[in-house]
Amino acid sequence: MIIYLLALPLFVVALGDDPRCQERYLVDDHCDSGPGEREFLYTYDKQTEKCVGAESCGPETRRLLFSTQEECIKKCNVKGQEIEDVEVPLEDRQIEKERK
């Protein structure tokens, strides 16, 4: 009985893991190089243990990413990373200007 009580918190923690923290999203694996809607979001990089910027190319890829760097840091339990002002790629800035 005591073993079950000790194992329960581990089971609960495992259930709470966000799948977006398990594998780094690479835009080339999900998006083609053609024109289309791109959005700058965030992914967790297990190698560097940091949240980094990534491009989304539609609703399917948007669900694989975090909306903000802060959300990524909290969900993936990143230690020691400050929320940074990330420079949006030039192409994305040009697209945003064209939309306005």
TrEMBL record:
MF terms (GO), sorted A to Z: serine-type endopeptidase inhibitor activity
UniProt entry keywords in alphabetical sequence: Signal
Source organism, top-level taxon: Eukaryota
Signal sequence range: 1-16
Protein's name in the database: Putative secreted protein
Organism: Amblyomma americanum (Lone star tick)
